[in-house]
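Hi U.,

Before I forget, here's the chain from the pilot set. I'm dumping it here mostly so it's searchable later in email.
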Amino acid sequence: MPMSPRKRAQAFRGVQYGILVLAVAAVAFFADWEKFGNAFFNFDAMGTQFPGIITTALVNTIIYTGLGFALGLALGLVLALMKLSSVAPYRWIATVYIEFFRGVPALLVFIALGFGVPLAFQIQFDTYSTAAIALGLVGSGYIAETLRAGIQAVPKGQVEAARSLGMSQSRAMVTVVIPQAFRIILPPLTNELILLTKDSSLIYILGLLDTQYELAKFGREGMNATNSMSPILLAGACYLLITVPLGYLSRYLERRAGRKRDEGLEVTA
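Structure:
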């Protein structure tokens, strides 16, 4: 007698669970746990990373990310307004910029700013400026598109109401549209901050002093010094201290925005 779709789905899930249990059992039985522990959970090697991994690497990672995000947000807002401008050259410039920096690898931007610009123009930036500019340029392309979508999501009636009160187009944009757009785009903007946090690991390519190490560079140097993967695992855990709370914040803001949108629809209905 043929099985019903529900029975087939249950049988398929049972097979998947069985395969998973067998795989876990095989790993547990055949793995060299002593070697695995020494490689990834060597607490002596981890202990050598403190307090520097917190006081230097984690702090620098936050500083690099914060500077890059601030610059990216400012540039992104300008680009978003240019993209929505009625002046065609502004739209063309913004489109070319956004497509370029969204399509070029972030590592290439770091190399260009860290080595190409000094060679071509004899202009030397310090590490913090280079990190801020590189992350800002990369992030601004994505942030600009996010802001553009947020501005366009604001109901046109808001602008019309502001204009009816005697506001100019520019004042209505600054005082009415942009604040509402930021409330709409907070969740994706938080996701962009997470991406910039991870992109900050590319700063190692610039060549850093001990006091300028970020988490990835600090973990790599610790791995070379201890011949253990444990410092890298510890550096990854420090990244999670930043990205996991930001991820929860993004989901909370998304749910909150969804509830407000539903409430607005109910009032309208």
